[in-house]
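Predicting structure from sequence has reshaped protein science. With that in mind, we have picked out one protein's residues alongside their backbone shape tokens:
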Amino acid sequence: VQLVESGGLSVQAGGSLRLSCVASGLTHDDYAIGWFRQASGKEREGVSCINVMDGRTYYEDSLLGRFTISNDIGKKTVYLQMNDLKPEDAGVYYCAVDHIPRHCILRTSRYQYWGQGTQVTVSS
């Protein structure tokens, strides 16, 4: 299983970015993709996740309304649309897959495979 993130850039506060996560090597479509982020010197934290087959989503509460997760099953791609970005949103964003069919949650231990991350920088 391989995950490749893209879309990380340097933007000004208030700007928007869309991150992509392309998954390969999965043998079924009943899996979840989670987005996590890690700021310098801080622990990795959950952002959002989606059950790819039925589209159920979950968000970290503080990000509701600014971040939107979506997926394209045919392209095996999950997107994270991030609007009204703030300096505290900066960090390395990772996507990960939980290939066990179950409702997604934002706990790192639930995910078996991880991408290499994409850097998001937000300047004030």
